[in-house]
Amino acid sequence: MTLHTRRSLLASSLGLAALAACRHPPLMQPLHWQREPSGLEYARSEVPLGADRASVVIHLLRLDLHRHELRVVLAADLGKKLATAEEFRVQQKGLAAINAGYFDPEYRPLGLLVSGGRELAHLRLVDHGVFAIAGGRAQLDHARTFHAPPDLEFAIECGPRLLVAGERPRFRRADLARRVAIGHDSLGRVVLAVTEGVMGVEEFARVLALSEPVGGPGLRDALNLDGGSSAMLAAPLASGSVQVTTAVEVPVGLVVVSRNPL
User: Fold this and answer.
1) Is the overall model pTM greater than 0.85, yes or no?
2) Residues of the domain holding 20
């Protein structure tokens, strides 16, 4: 979904109701991580949203930065203008893939993109965040205060920031949409999150901050990525393939790869 399209959406009464409801979220089951032979971990969190709304499943992937790296892949690398998460994953022989950030009507990425230390798109000084990996550590900064360290390996700019040092910022939007996020916990492990169903941004952020015993991944910092019709996930796990598909394709994907593939 383009940034222009996203901005054209009006906050609905359902979205406003969601904001009110998420102040007292229903109880959730403890989160259980399933470890893959590659070291990648997967968990599934089911979020009940009240009697008048269907529950939403959040698919979660957790990376160990000593064993895994994130790569930005352009559809142009596949000889295409747009591609699916599975196509991005296969092109990189990756463990999993999701869609990335916003793009303009010409399918050009909006915001900083760095992969393997190489800048693919420039920083925009707007009210967004930059999630970066440098020196084996993840960090989230405001785009206007971000300064690339010399050992910058990966970066993606998008918004809004969902969690900042464990706290939720004040959100301007209240619409419901499929959600995608990237973040890290207090141990520095990177987590990717994709919903299968629609949520408000406030309730999505709230669940991402929850600790594992009450159903969340316990993230400290988290950044919203492009959602809505762009939300996608491809992860062929040992216990069965996990996919979130959509009728549209996107110009940029994020792929998880092993640092030392067998």
Assistant:
1) yes
2) 3-258
